[in-house]
Structures are given as C-alpha cells and as structure tokens.
Batch of 2 targets.
Target 1
Amino acid sequence: MNVLSTEIQGYAANSSMIRKMFEAGIELKKHYGADQVYDFSLGNPDLPPPAAVKKAILDFGRSANKPFAIGYMPNAGYPETRAALAKKISEEQQMETPAANLVVTCGAAGGLNAFFRAVLEPGDEVMCPSPYFVEYGFYVGNFGGKLVPVPTKLPSFALDVPAMEKAITAKTRAVLVNSPNNPTGQIYSATEIKALAAALKRQSRKHGRPIYLVSDEPYRFLNFDGSEIPSIFARYDASVVIGSFSKSLSLAGERIGYIAVCPKFKGAAELVGGLTLTNRILGFVNAPAIAQKILQSCLDSEVDVGVYAKRRDLMAKVLDDAGIAYTLPRGAFYFFPKSPTADERIFVEALLKERVLAVPGRGFGLPGYFRLAFCADAAVILNSAASFKRAVAAVSGCQPAATKTCKKCRPAKKA
C-alpha cells in the first residue's frame, strides 16, 4: 500500500541524521541516565531566554483579555513588529531598510520556504557552499528546484568563488550562503562576499535575469572573535537576508523569523508582495502572534555569548586531547572536525558506543567529517573527554592508554 508519495518515501529513507541521533540520545538517556550521555547532535539552545523575554511574556499576558489579542494580523506581520525589525536590520546591514521591505515568518526555515516558493520555477537551481545545513535540499526541492553544492576550500571552509562562478548556469536562480555557518562555524569575510557579489553581477548580466543572493543569518549574533559579519545589502542589490531568533533569544520552539529585501533592489516591492502571498498560501498564514509581540521589546536583548565562547574553548580542548583535527569555529555553536576514519560513519558509531552523539558529515555534503553542537552544559563537554579518547582508540586499533604516545592518536594540530 502506497501511503506516501515516492518523493517523501525517498526523503524518509534518507531523513536527517541530526534528528535520528537526537532521538537515539533520548533512549540512551532513559537507559543510562542523562548525565552519562554526551549529546552534541542537535543545535537546540539550552540557555534560558533573556530576562526581557520573560517580562515581555508577562506584559502580554496582562493584556491578553482584549479582543483579537491573539487574532489574525496582516500576513506580513504586525506593523509595529516590522518597524522594530526594520530598525535592527538597518543597523546590521548598514543601510536604511524600511518596514515595507520585511516579512515576519515562521522562523528562518519558514522564510526560506516562502522565498523559494516565490521565485523558483521547476528545474531552477539554487547554489550553496558545501558543507551546508542539511535541510536546504529539502526546502529547494519542495518547489521543484535543485540544490547545487559547491565545495569550500579545505581546511578553512572559505568560499571558493571562482568555482562557484564556474558552476552557475542559465538555470541558477539563487546563491544561498549561511554565515556564521552551520555546520562549520565559518564566517565569510567582506572580501569573499564582495568577490561573490561581483561574480553574481557578471552572471546575472550574462543570463538576463537577476541571480538572488540569499544570506541565511540565524547565527549572526554568535561571533566569538569580533570578526566582521559583512553587509550583504551593501554589496549586492538582488539580495535578501533571512534570520530568526531561535538562538539569540532561545526561542527555537516559538518559530519566529523574518525575510528582509534589499532596498536597492528594483523589484523589491513586487518581491515583498510575492513573499507575503507565499507566507500565506504555504499554510503559515502569519508568524506566531505572541512571538511577534515579544520581539517588539526584546530585539536589543540576547543570551550571553560568553557562555558559548567558553564552551567552544572546552570543546576544543577535548578534541585536542583526543587527537582529533579541526578548524576552530569563529561563530555559531558547532565544530566540524575531520574524522579519524575515512568513512566518518564508522567513527560516529564508535562515539555512539561511548554514549557520545555526533552527526556524520555526509548529511551536510562533506563525508569524512562530523558535526558536534556544543550548545550543551560545560559539564557534559568536560565529562565526554574520556569517551572521545576511547572512540579514537577503538577506530585506530590502539589501546586507550596509548593516546598520549601513539603517532596515530597523539593530538593533531588545529587546521
């Protein structure tokens, strides 16, 4: 009996390893206890929301007895929410961006789906640097598009702009970048973005239609080393910025985000109109009302980035001591280390036997690597150290006690 479509059957068979590992972790925690399982599978922020969020919720609760307090609003969002977001986007993008250029969405994922529904024809291509967030292929495929990954430069994960330009075809409709990046933690420099913008301008003229530059920025606030996160709007007119507050305000379950269209884009009004329509007809209708109310007074608040910075340093030490090579993430809360085995699934399985939950890199478009989400308590990171060492020893054929002396297992230099 064909319960599902052929496409969804295929998706289900190859569904996200992130969720599979997360669910495996739930079972392990039931069996061994939560403190004996080291879960780095899911980017689920564990820090409580800032105090301003609690105050905003309480303030809303006191006014929730009014008519239509949680009723429908314009599909693009409350005007006051859009106005508050416009001020923030203007500062981040270093360009005055009117509220009319924003649509409030059901998280960044909802924004990406609304955008692709608005601009893609069947067979259109969306290019992205690889490795990339695992859901991108699904979002593009939802509307008949094809995701075209282009490898980044290893080991730094920097953009390979010449390779990206070479991969552009008449079917290329958009280029999707994510900085700070999931899964690598890389931040693309102003030089890289400027070069990419120049390439897109050349290729847009060549093919006779704008190639959109889409910047997915839910981790913009998670910048550990003071690196510049360059303005997309200042460098390319046919651009949109998509973001959310899942991480910065620890509101992942509330599903609140936005799409902002560059004010210099000549088709901005038409695009915003299309995005407002697709936001509705995809079944989102509008972003959650309560979350929109929260944003109006909380946009200048965020969780303590210093906590994540300390966890990054702890995770780096654990990997160093286990002899696992990595490039230090500059943002977001992920490491994307190189596996000690060519097939990273073997090492991820070895980690699982040690009750460490990681995600194979092939799901992100780069076999031979694996992802660790360090949005976990410092104690979880520290207590995982012995498990990492045993897993490395298991796949290398060494004894655990040999990790300090064995040439194959001694700590590798950071890439």
Target 2
Amino acid sequence: MSVNNKSIFGPVVLTVRNLAAMVAFYQQSIGLKLLERSGNIAMMGVEDRCLLTLNENPQAKHPGRTTGLYHFAILLPSRPALARQLHHLVETGVHLQGAADHLVSEALYLADPEGNGIEIYRDRPRDQWPQENGQLRMASDPLDFTGLLADWPLREAPWQGLPVGTVMGHVHLRVSDLATAEAFYRAVLGMDLMMRFGHSASFLSYHGYHHHIGINTWESLGQPEAPEGSQGLSQFVIQAPDMELFNRIKTAEKLESNAMEPPDSKLVLRDPSGNAVVVLPP
C-alpha cells in the first residue's frame, strides 16, 4: 500500500517548442490524459486533476547550463501500478535513463522529447522508511526489476494510462547555491529539511513526507538562471498547508505582484536561483 503524501502540488508548467509532439508523448508514453487544449496551451492530468501544463513557444531556446528543472516526479498509487508502467515503457520503446531503489520509494527515470527530466515512482509505506540516528535514510540502490515486474498481474486489462490516484509527488530543481536555496524553502516556504546529501543536495517537505522539493547543484553550481522564455520549467504550483503560512509567505522577498489577481488568490515567488513557485491558499 502506498503512503499518502498529502500531495501539495498543482500543475508543473513547462515551456515547449512543439506542443503536438509533447502532447502525444505524454498521452501515449506516460499515460496522462489531455484535459483541455486552447491555442498554444495544453493541460494534462489524471481524472480531472491537472498535473502538467504545456505552453508552446516555437522560438523558445534550450536554456543550456543553467538552474531550472532537474525532474518532476509522478507518484503512482502502488507497486503493481509502477510495474505496469515499466512494462508499458519497455513495450513502447521508451528509453530509460535510470532506475533506483531509494529505500523510501522505487523509481524510474527518463526524459521527454525536449529533454525535461521525469521520475515515475511509487512509495513504500511510511512505517517501512528506514531511520538512522533518528533521521530519515535514503539511498540510490539498484532497482529490483525482476521483483518489480513480478508484482504486475499479466492477466489484467490492457494499459489505459496512469491509474486513478496518481499525483505529482515532488519537484527536483537545479540550483546555483545549495545553502541559499535551502534557506528559501525552509524560511520562506516553511518546509522541513528531511535529508541532506553532503554539500550538493537537500530534500525538504511538509507533513513529514520524504520530500516534496529536491534541490541540487550537481550540474548547476554557480550557474545563472535560464533566460526568460527558454524551454523547460516555467513555474510549479503548490498549495500552502495552512493560512498562517500562506500569510507569512506574503512578506517574502522577490514576491512578484500581479495586479490582475485578487490579493489572496495566489502568490508568485522566485527562489534564489530564479525558479518560479506559485503558492495557492489552502
């Protein structure tokens, strides 16, 4: 049984060059449903919940070595669902960039046709998450593909896309400086630090989840933010866990005002590496 991570996410918003090709990939390879398409915007999700918004700009350029998206992570509701997704990816010839057992979860890694990183994973039940000296322990051990696929009942109905209960589990970002980014997500957004990998990665969350936000400097140490209008991450949306925190975030630095929005409808901030975060009230 999967842990309930109390998903905090609205859609992750990407700028893409070829909307038709990207919609086809996310429908046919990933299994998201096209919820709405209007002009150069497509909203995709599971049931009626939007997980991903694609904004087309054919002139958008690859950002190069900058801060931005490392990957967004789609959380499936069970291990059999992950096994079914793995079988579908292999069956349709989608290239996997990697796979790992993180002790708290099992994960598959790939990229979309424009290079945006994707993780598809399932959580272990929370009472199975390992602790070490009172702290959560995660790792990147080899994934047991044989054991995972054994959990997929071969006689089930044909693949019909991502199953009910699928949510956006976390977002992992490339940042320029770990300490300043970590301070932003802790002090401004009020997240708890769950784990730190040396001086190059941190994992933060609400509700005691293993992580809603990952940040790293593996490919982005000291690098600038992507030029405006670049391919890739435009923004991601989260919901504040309570009004007290939502009101506190209003005082944050780098708050982008929007005169067209009611004052309590949303907050738009940028972390110290330029990643845009939209915060909704609870």
